[in-house]
């Protein structure tokens, strides 16, 4: 899709220091880096900072980063740290990391050794979902808020938090409309464009993003459906690596469209909202602990995860599922193993991919997707 808003979203999704961030910095704005929405971005927004999702976009290798990690670390981790060492994140005024996995947390340890690094907080997210874990999480978030106040020299009041909650809820409502359009028999927007829209939310000032997304939704409502797309296979994408728009385009380069995904900054980010009633810090904690979809990082959540995937497949009328993991990513490897069995029992066509963050075999990838689509024809 071509439009002014889409061009801006694509630029934000396919670069690191994009023109929206540059304009924000020129106006004296602060930028806080974080790793996708497991970190409560509302607290960063309330502190007046632009919350920027850190990723490895644009890197072609890991020459510098390789000296800091075991070669068994996933390529997303190494590529992201390469961009840090190459100075691509010098514009950050602060950075917060969390314990997604042992690979990601090493970014924090290594970043601390870099002179003038922006790291100021590390959040330990509990692996369990019980009352004790809720109590622990609350303490972590209170501590994170305090550190953010110190870092940016502000006192974050309840009113500031409430304003941030309303702003981020508006983003969720607007983005949900994009996913609603994907339920149509002929969706007006591709999966790659959808991911660019979702990723751009983590890479530009939030007010500006919401205004652009409103413009785009208006344009989409006036667009005539492309009927040639009617017979495309409707796919669900699960896994890592979705922050490379070219990767998503490759998956869709034949007769298929990614209708919906199960990524942290994608569909997971639009499910549910933060309550605007009550103590705002508590409602943020409730949302991040209870409302957001559970992940494989959390123990005892398998049934919930499978029920949710089954519901997504039904709601979006999915024909098949592509899962992808980065080599060395044990979390997604176990998830792929479990899901393969689940899809087999549920009679849902499924393709499992193993890829590297820097795509080096687009032709091979296309061949595998083509073969998968052909087997779906035979079913
Ligand atoms: S891709 Fe897997 S191993 Fe790498 S940071 Fe993400 S969860 Fe961790």
Automatic annotation (TrEMBL):
It is an enzyme of class 1 (oxidoreductase). GO terms for molecular function: benzoyl-CoA reductase activity. The keyword Oxidoreductase applies. Its EC number is 1.3.7.8. Keywords: Oxidoreductase. It holds the Pfam family HGD-D. Gene3D superfamilies: 1.20.1270.370, 3.40.50.11890, 3.40.50.11900. Its cofactor is [4Fe-4S] cluster. Belongs to the FldB/FldC dehydratase alpha/beta subunit family. PANTHER family: 2-HYDROXYGLUTARYL-COA DEHYDRATASE, D-COMPONENT-RELATED, DEHYDRATASE SUBUNIT MJ0007-RELATED. This is Benzoyl-CoA reductase subunit C. The lineage of its organism: Bacteria, Bacillati, Bacillota, Negativicutes, Selenomonadales.
